[in-house]
Specification:
NADH Oxidase; alpha+beta; NAD(P)H nitroreductase; binds flavin mononucleotide; 19% strand; 5-stranded mixed sheet; Nitroreductase-like; Nitroreductase/BluB
Length: 324
């Protein structure tokens, strides 16, 4: 057997897990060590109530951080046993994680694959610029194992996907156009020079969003000329419970990190799934692509990204989210 993680290592793994994506970089999570186990709690004080009144995206974001954690701890030859929603009386307590040593015999087998995923945590960025299309094998099998691991499916949309999702994006944008609360909230979170939370101007395209993208404040990021040729995919679940949301976030993280390993650029999109009418349209687009699960949770753009590193979007200091 190899040694399991000490508390300093768990803290370091949590810091790495906090590189996970979250709605508007709100980072709505708190981590607490209790009796040798790590608890993940949603932090309601960091919710985004107009865009996300039910807290669905808050839980999806936490699910992404939970999956990032399970990848991060492999650095210490450790695996996680995850109990989801362990306390029926506390819906904000999303998971309790216990750590298990990985028997040495099992370490080398998957080691390179897992190490690649770990490296992807630091390399991944949300890229809002237009993409070139994925190349022939880029998407083969992507997300297939998410079904087994997280009961969520990734459906790649066919040739009619861009037109269908454009219609959904236009629908949600028109619902929001004269909603001052939505715009006040969006401008609170995005378009500043903030360092540790929100979406900074440096990662928002000066040319505005791609056609299916969210209309953020205009930023300073230059984009290559030409249309967006990204592949579009939808993560769906059978039901729409808190557990489905959590698992969708885990599946999202798995898909984003795997795509990053394959040198693909990625962008999660929820402007399309926040408004009931446009969420229905996304569900119909997924169904047309063969999806049988009824609840569209999140859209992902995938493609060959423009050359040139994107700036890193900052995170809150670990002290603000960690308690031991
Ligand atoms: C639930 C969820 C919803 C998101 N929705 C959008 C979106 O609609 N548009 C977008 O450009 N990015 C979206 N993102 C990406 C976040 O803005 C991004 O993760 C955050 O700003 C941190 O940046 P990073 O991913 O580059 O680390 C979403 C991420 C999550 C987890």
């Amino acid at each position: 057997m190899v040694a399991g993680p000490g508390i300093a290592q768990v803290r370091q793994a949590v810091a790495t897990a906090c590189r996970a994506p979250s709605l508007h970089n709100s980072q709505p999570w708190r981590w607490r060590m209790a009796a040798g186990r790590l608890e993940l709690h949603a932090d309601g004080s960091r919710s985004v109530p107009v865009a996300d009144p039910l807290g669905r995206q808050m839980v999806i974001s936490c699910g992404a951080a939970l999956h990032h954690l399970t990848v991060a701890v492999t650095r210490y030859a450790t695996a996680c046993r995850v109990e989801r929603l362990p306390d029926p009386s506390d819906p904000m307590h999303l998971a309790t994680v216990t750590f298990e040593q990985i028997p040495e015999a099992r370490v080398p087998a998957a080691a390179e694959q897992v190490a690649a995923l770990r490296r992807a945590i630091d390399a991944r960025r949300t890229d809002r610029r237009p993409f070139a299309p994925p190349q022939s094998n880029d998407l083969t099998g992507l997300g297939e194992d998410a079904v087994e691991m997280f009961a969520a499916t990734l459906t790649l949309l066919g040739a009619d996907g861009p037109a269908r999702l454009l219609e959904a994006a236009q629908c949600s944008a028109s619902v929001r156009r004269y909603d001052p609360d939505y715009h006040a909230e969006l401008y609170w979170w995005a378009g500043h020079v903030a360092v540790s939370e929100g979406v900074p101007r440096a990662v928002l395209p000066a040319a505005g969003p791609v056609p299916v993208g969210r209309e953020f404040p205009v930023g300073t990021l230059t984009s290559p000329p030409g249309p967006d040729r990204a592949a579009l995919a939808v993560i769906s679940t059978d039901a729409d419970t808190r557990l489905d949301w959590l698992r969708s976030g885990e599946a999202l993280s798995h898909v984003l990190l795997t795509a990053t390993v394959r040198a693909l650029a990625t962008c999660p999109l929820t402007n399309l799934t926040e408004v009931a009418a446009s969420r229905r349209m996304v569900g119909e687009a997924a169904a047309a692509g063969g999806e049988r699960r009824g609840f569209a949770q999140i859209v992902v753009r995938l493609g060959r990204g423009p050359v040139g590193e994107l700036p890193v979007t900052g995170r809150r200091p670990i002290e603000e989210v960690w308690e031991a």
